Amino acid sequence: MNETLERVTQEIENLRDDMVRTLVELISIPAISPDYGGEGEYDKAQKLLEIIRDWPFDKVEVYNAPDERAKNGVRPSILAYYYGEKGEESDRLWILTHLDVVPPGDLSKWTVTEPFKPLIKDEKVYGRGSEDNGQSLVASLYAVKAMMNLGIRPKRTLILAFVSDEETGSHYGVEWLIKNHPELFRKDDLVLVPDGGNEDGTFIEVAEKSILWFKLKVRGKQVHASMPDKGLNAHRVALDLAYHLDGFLHEKYSKRDELFEPPESTFEPTMVKNPADSPNIAPGEHEVVFDCRVLPDYSLDEILGDVERLAKEVTEKYKKEIDGKILPEIDVEVLQRLDAPAPTDPDSEIVRLLKEAIKRLRGKDAKVGGIGGGTFAAFFRKLGIPAVVWATIDEMAHQPNEYAKIDNMVEDAKVMAALALL
Question: What sequence ranges are listed for the domain Peptidase M20 dimerisation (predicted)?
């Protein structure tokens, strides 16, 4: 390890208590999307700006995506620049983390502490958003703070991006920034998204599956269950469609790619809903939601075409005229769609640097691979900017009793600093 990196990693270690305090402060502020009934990220963004107000960043910018549902009508994203040794001419490394968190879920399952009352216990910080994405957000902050404290300029300019709306599609976050402020991004930028990984920090994600969420909405005719011939049971139609669709998609799109875990496309029915509130009602409506994670080789348009075709076949199978109306009616609604871009080259500079940093600091060889989940690294890959997803996590995201290991936060900050210094 070179002398500069050694000094910075030691300073990060000295800042351990400050890192924990900052994480606790941020967890205490809910930042839930209006899509989930929350107010958004405004309060958390203000707290973060307050925390870094006196830090010697070279530039701090706030970009407010308009969203009338959110507090003060905006979804803020913050960019904080710390210039490299060549000033504004330095090569640039982005580290992107997100401000928003998912809702707590079933409160009865939070047995260690309440979701937004962080608790430090057994070298972990418990609370909603601790690991996803507070741990990495704080790690990126203090990777830079250590250099600031020592008066060290890194080889590469560090751009810390704290963005909104990652949990519900990034429409008011990274996607909005890229669409409305393309001047912010350069083709030769390097991008780290510390929002996924494994327990020992040896997995570097360079590829993602496409994501498709769709809802099947079936309308029949509600009747008393003792007289099913008088109506059309939407529940039965939807079950038939979901069953055959599940089998068909798995059979047709069955290719395996060992870069990913799991190595095949997945098509999971996840949610159902109908208005029947009694055992003796045959419902006239039924909804089924599928979550599909699809290998990049396959076209989501083709999959949606197959869904529409099978929906028509099932419609014909149950076709019935009731009160002058032809039933069933089946609609396919796309809830979310993200077409996977080409993977980041496993031999790209950001992958090489990250492997070198992990080897130097931890003595471990990192491996590259792909995931089924979506991160906003995909938006950069679409621009042709190499991006990787990496962090050291216990995969507690979205779980009750979510926690962040303090050691993971501190050690990841050291790796982030190394990326800027090597």
Answer: 206-318
Q: Which tokens belong to 216? A: 């099947």
**Separation of alpha carbons 102 and 127, rounded Å:** 12
Same domain, 169 and 70: yes
- Contact assessment for residue 287 and residue 217, using Cβ atoms and an 8 Å cutoff: yes
Q: Which residues pair with 294 in a beta bridge?
A: 210
Report the sign of the C-alpha dihedral through residues 25, 203, 102, 160, in that order: positive
Q: What is the pLDDT of residue 64?
A: 98
- Residues in contact with 349: Cβ distance below 8 Å, sequence separation at least 6, in sequence order: 190, 386
Element (H, E) at 218: strand 210-219
pLDDT value for 342: 87
Same domain, 107 and 217: no
- Pair 128, 114: CB distance under 8 Å: no
Within the chain, how many helices (H) and strands (E) appear? 10, 19
Predicted local confidence at residue 113, as pLDDT: 98
- Rounded Cα–Cα distance for residues 240 and 237 (Å): 5
The reported pTM is 0.84
Strand partners for 329: 219
Residues annotated as catalytic (active site), given as ranges: 100, 166
Domain identity same for 131 and 114: yes
Residue 272 CB: number of other CB atoms within 10 A?
A: 14
Q: What is the pLDDT of residue 349?
A: 97
Beta bridge partners of 193: 389
Residues of the chain with pLDDT under 50: none
Given this model, what pLDDT does residue 1 score? 60
Determine how many CB atoms are found less than 10 A away from the CB of residue 327. 21
For residue 138, which amino acid is it?
A: V
Residue recorded with tokens 């990250």: 354
Looking at residue 373, what is its pLDDT? Answer: 74
